[in-house]
Amino acid sequence: MKKMMKAMLAVMIAFTAFASTGGAALAANSVPAAKNVIILIPDGMGVDGTTLARWYKGGTPLAMDEMASGMVKTHSADAAIADSAPAGTAFATGHKSHTGYVGVLPDVADMPGVDPIPAGEERRPVANVLEAAKLAGKSTGIISTSEVMHATPAAFSAHYPDRSNYDALSKQQVYNGLDVVLGGGSRFFVPDGRKDGNDLLEVIKQSGYDYVTTIDELKASTADKLWGLFAPSALAYDMDRDPAKEPSLAEMTSKAIEVLSRNEEGFFLMVEGSKVDWAAHANDPIGIISDVLAFDEAVKVALDFAKKDQNTMVLAATDHGNGGITIGNAETSRTYDKLPLSTFIAPLQKAKLTGEGLEKMLNEDRSNVKEVMEQYYGISDLTDEEVKAIQETKPGSMNYTVGPMISKRAMIGWTTGGHTGGDVTLYSYTPGNGRLTGVLDNTELAVYMAEALGVDLNATTERLFVPAREAFTAKGAEVEWDITDPKNPVVIVTKGSDTLRLPIYTNIAEFNGTMIPLEGVTVFNGEKTFVPQQAIDLIP
Question: Against a cut of 0.90, is the pTM above it?
Fold first, then answer.
């Protein structure tokens, strides 16, 4: 009877979570079974940015054009305009969250149509599709052109209510048992780049990964477990990228599929084109074009594999809009229908680098601004004010200065330097060349992927994230924290002669001196600790 009641409760919880996210739209789509799922996220990609990229390449179709099938709502639990952390969390877990929160529930959920958070469930870690796929025996991977612990990739591989806590997020990623991790951010995995002093690169190597740092090493690797970090921070914009040093997003995607597809049980892969968003924040159309086209090449890699494999689902959608980019601005209000395409595209096609790449061409005192801008941007009519602005730009911010300059000359409009709240385009391909259609909530993509893979997100949450103190206390055990090293705390559980040690953000359990790998990580959310049920079961 107890088992039956528990099963009924699980069904009710699953239904409630499904219904609260607008499940009617998803219910209208039959969910095909898929051995593999690939989701690609062009962070911050607006519709006009996609159109601009298509015109830039001559008007020929983008790979993702044939996949366009619907729209996605992007709001968070308590705001009309989402930050990447809750937006990525929605895609990954099927739950709305709050700005800055990665893989955990929000404190407040008060947007129309979103159920409130039950008391006591605030900031609770919730399982993502990747974790559920891993427990089902599938291989898993994440790729990004940002640091790999940035908000979107972290949402598929870690849990913490602060996206800036790179120590907590990256440590979970290292101990979460992913098969492939590719992107940037190597400086955050070594002691000098961390507040906790850990050498995670050494942990990666000792955990059996082939750790690669160059494109040649990536191509040469034959390992089944692969971790590649190709820059200290984010990777370069694709237009600025040195192809002899850094892999493209498409090359990383191809390699990940090669490795993950060796698993006969299938795989789950998340791919993020991270810096489309960064360019949009800077109101930089060149950066957007650069990385939308690079993202599209990655989509082509995934789509070509799916068409050949016939057992792979491919989804693509941005997590939110950004910048409010428009082809046409206030200056075209009376002439918009008389201007030839070249008005908008010709100035952009003269650019050979993004602002980030252009900054490296300036000499130390920036006395060669006019020469550099003419050579690499085709701009020969800089005003004295524009020259001064470039000369005074802080290092690392050149996109913010030259992006608006070329936008003005190309009649490209912008409404903001921040995110926008409109619906975004959904791209989908499923086995049998099916499509996911309609206007869907961002949380429904997680539900759809989970159903296709035959995994249960709610059951995975209950399996991986049990409130530690309550569960251990219920078994008659005592729980305390060892803060001998305050930056690397350990949960200590004792009962009689038994002692269990659980280092925070790792999958390590030390029971009576014996090391036992857990199927998930111990997560501290700033207030409570959550552990896999497997850890609870170690205490008799």
Answer: yes
